[in-house]
Design brief:
The chain is an all-alpha fold and 229 residues long. 76% of the residues lie in helices and 0% in strands.
């Protein structure tokens, strides 16, 4: 894979989306005041990861691993055990596996862009079965630990697993699944912000994630169309 500066591949629109995301997230952090630095760092890494995932660049998956680890720590502090377990035990490992999958399936040898793929009916069936199993198991795990916002946290696990799995399988629909997960996370952090306004930046963070994931779905559809000629 070429080692050229990955930021040089961003289009003007992507630069605009990326810079806007960084500015909005950072501004919300400054205005929020009491939010810790780790939250800001996680947010900025997450935004950077998404813009490269939207480009089909494996760098996005590497940054996703880092984001997942930091976000797990933040979630633990808030007793969002579902989020912690999801990102530490599922999102991070699947993102790591995606790094391998994407490196093995470049669109062009030596290029940065991964080859988009269409899942078979059997693959979709397996994904749905695994999603149901993961949701069922984690519901009882979270209930045992007395997880805050049990229903929403369980739904977050469902959408997060779908998104991670679709990303690993190089499907354009990963963006829609992550978008659904962003909405769930926005609700979770709104609840947290009611008790502590310093967590409002996380609401803003996942709103910007939502915009990036919507673009990711759009761009991957373009990528697939172009790759198919």
């Amino acid at each position: 894979m070429k080692s050229k500066n990955p930021f040089s591949y961003l289009s003007k629109f992507e630069w605009g989306l990326y810079i806007t995301s960084l500015v909005v997230v950072t501004a919300s952090f400054i205005i929020g005041g009491g939010c810790d630095a780790l939250t800001l760092i996680a947010s900025l890494i997450g935004v950077t990861a998404l813009i490269f995932v939207a480009k089909g660049d494996v760098l996005g998956q590497l940054l996703t691993v880092v984001f997942a680890l930091i976000y797990a720590v933040i979630s633990y502090d808030l007793r969002y055990y579902g989020e912690m377990i999801t990102y530490l035990g599922m999102t991070a490992p699947i993102a790591a596996a995606s790094v391998i999958t994407w490196l093995r399936n470049p669109y062009k040898k030596g290029g940065r862009e991964v080859k988009a793929a269409v899942m078979s009916r059997g693959g979709i069936a397996l994904m749905l079965l695994l999603t149901a199993a993961v949701t069922f198991v984690f519901y009882f795990i979270l209930n045992y630990f007395g997880n805050a916002s049990l229903g929403i946290s369980t739904l977050s696990i469902t959408t997060s697993f779908l998104a991670s799995y679709l990303t690993m399988m190089r499907s354009p629909y990963y963006g829609l699944a992550y978008g659904a997960n962003d909405i769930v996370l926005i609700i979770l952090w709104v609840i947290a912000s009611i008790d502590d306004i310093s967590y409002l930046p996380m609401v803003v963070c996942f709103f910007m994630f939502l915009l990036n994931d919507v673009y990711g779905f759009y761009n991957w559809r373009r990528i697939m169309k172009r790759q198919r000629g």
